[in-house]
TrEMBL record:
Enzyme class: hydrolase
Record protein name field: DNA polymerase V
Keyword Hydrolase in annotation: yes
MF-aspect GO terms: hydrolase activity
Residue ranges annotated for the Peptidase S24/S26A/S26B/S26C domain, each copy included: 16-101
One Pfam family recorded for the sequence: Peptidase_S24
Alphabetized UniProt keyword annotations: Hydrolase
Enzyme Commission number, as recorded: 3.4.21.-
InterPro entries listed in its UniProt record: LexA-like (IPR039418), LexA/Signal_pep-like_sf (IPR036286), LexA_repressor (IPR050077), Peptidase_S24_S26A/B/C (IPR015927)
Organism: Nocardioides aromaticivorans
Superkingdom, natural source: Bacteria
Gene3D superfamilies: Umud Fragment, subunit A
Length: 144
């Protein structure tokens, strides 16, 4: 057997998972996979909201994605927030621009004034992968 390294580039991504078949040589995951137990720290204050636009596409947040929002967390610069503006929930990144707090999206910057009510902090992004033809993001093609 040769000790030389292969110069062939490798493609793909290596991931760790607890949702696959266990390897008999390793300790195995006991119990059932519970996404709420894995992703939600405060069940009484966490909600799921569906994203309705691509206004945060630069952050990888697209229409049809879902975000877990924790209402118990405090807003802080850099966090993705849900705020209520004119009775409508809006999602954006909390930024400080020229010394002023704003909710920033790819399309606009909304000043965070007393008229804007912080509703919660997004903690998890659930991004659905297409199962149909390439580029098809129609939710009917997702496994249920």
């Amino acid at each position: 057997m040769s000790n030389t390294r292969s110069t062939t580039p490798r493609r793909g991504v290596s991931v760790e998972t607890t949702a696959s078949f266990p390897n008999p040589a390793q300790d195995y995951f006991e119990g059932h996979l519970s996404l709420d137990r894995h992703l939600v720290r405060r069940p009484t204050s966490t909600f799921v909201l569906r994203v309705s636009s691509d206004a945060l596409a630069s952050m990888g947040i697209r229409a049809g994605d879902e975000v877990l929002v924790d209402r118990a967390l405090d807003p802080a610069p850099g966090r993705v927030l849900v705020v209520v503006v004119d009775s409508e929930r809006r999602l954006g990144r909390f930024d400080i621009v020229d010394g002023r707090a704003v909710l920033a999206t790819d399309l606009e910057q909304i000043p965070l004034t007393s008229d804007v009510e912080p509703w919660g902090v997004a903690t998890v992004l659930l991004h659905h992968l297409p199962l149909g033809p390439a580029g098809d993001r129609d939710r009917r093609n997702y496994a249920r």
